[in-house]
Amino acid sequence: MESEKRSGELAQTLNIGRAVALAMGIVIGAGLLVLPGLAYSQAGNKAVYAWVVDALIVIPLLFIFGTLGSRYPSAGGVAGFVRTAFGSIAGGITEVVLMGAFFLGIPGIALTGANYLGYLFHLGQLGINLCAVGLLVFAGVLNYLGTQLSGMTQQILSYGLVIVLAAVAVVALVFAHPHPNAIAAPQDWLKASPIFGMVFFAFTGWEMLSFMGEEFRNPKRDFPIAVIVSFILVVLLYLGIAFAIQWTLSPHNPRTVEAPIAAILANVLGGWSGELVSVIGVLIIMANLNGATWASSRLLFSSAREGFLPKFLAHVDPKARIPRRSILITVSTFILIVVIHGIGLLPLHEMFSLSGQNFFLLYLFSVIAYLRLVRNIFAAIFGLGTVICCLIFAGSFGTLLLYPVILALFGLSVGVLKAKRKEHHSTNMDTSENSLSKDK
């Protein structure tokens, strides 16, 4: 019986070092490699203030998120928090909104890495799309082979690449000739509000760490520490790179959007350095995709285990103790989105904008769950204040909010339908048992 139970559980392989590496690898990626350039091209020299505002906004959210992750570790992550607080239907709605974020954002990350490969090898759009598929397949294979290999790979990539990226920012800020009017006056910070939602995508990823809760060796201690340490390192990197991009590049340069970090060093040290950074950028994306695929597959696994998705996806490989079926379906869906992008139906900036706002709303869901689950006066005041700030911030998303609303309505419909079927099945079982009792 014990071995049977163990075969259905996920392997507990995460310690603080690996968790911090995973968090940084998930958060740093497209958020660092392309969004500073996209933001700069759209908001000009006011863009850097979006990074400052989003960093401040995410602090209370991460406090709440870290508290819930240490108290309620599960493969369900944010959806697990909501399910614990409000029941299965609310959990199902959250899962659908999460999938809407993952299945747009993660292919966007792959396309970002492919753009760096395109910069390196002078590829056309078809070649870039094929490279994106190849990066997704690589992440899928790494995850399919097991958590020990993917976790160790993540640690090596994340820590090494963070050091290199910090050096890039320092070199640009110290040795480059500043671009005229590189930074807007502080009183103009509010003019960056149209890009708040898009830039917030760069501050997503910690919610993915929550899907690995079951795989922590000591979640109560290690989960909050991993969140705090990774947040400090990520914010320092983001601000350094955002300043460096505005300091050295023009917002009208095509490379500012496509591969800004490569363009920074090419501008400072010459063309060969841009190619070197392209290689580094691809490695960062590989680390990012590894962690993101890990988290996304656990979402599908948890959703299937809870009965929202087909039970087929809840299977755990008895030897490796990983959900290999969920990994295969996850990667296949990512590839499908890249194909849709490739035929011109889904621009990259829309993928990030829609995904980023969904991730922000999922932080809001976590805050609401926190209010329900953590009952004390501090939690009530802190949680309500955070909810109000989140709602004000969400107002900047405009009509794009229709996307998560439609997803939520779909999740609600499926959840209600499944609940009715379950109730109908229970009623039929009770009727059958009563008939058998009468016959006896």
Automatic annotation (TrEMBL):
InterPro entries: AA/rel_permease1 (IPR002293), APC_superfamily (IPR050367). Keywords: Cell membrane, Membrane, Transmembrane, Transmembrane helix. It comes from the Bacteria. The keyword Flavoprotein does not apply. It is a multi-pass membrane protein. The chain crosses the membrane at residues 20-41, 47-68, 80-106, 126-145, 157-175, 195-213, 225-249, 261-289, 327-346, 352-370, 377-395, 401-419. It is found in: Cell membrane. GO terms for cellular component: plasma membrane. The keyword Glycoprotein does not apply. GO terms for molecular function: transmembrane transporter activity. This is Amino acid/polyamine/organocation transporter, APC superfamily.
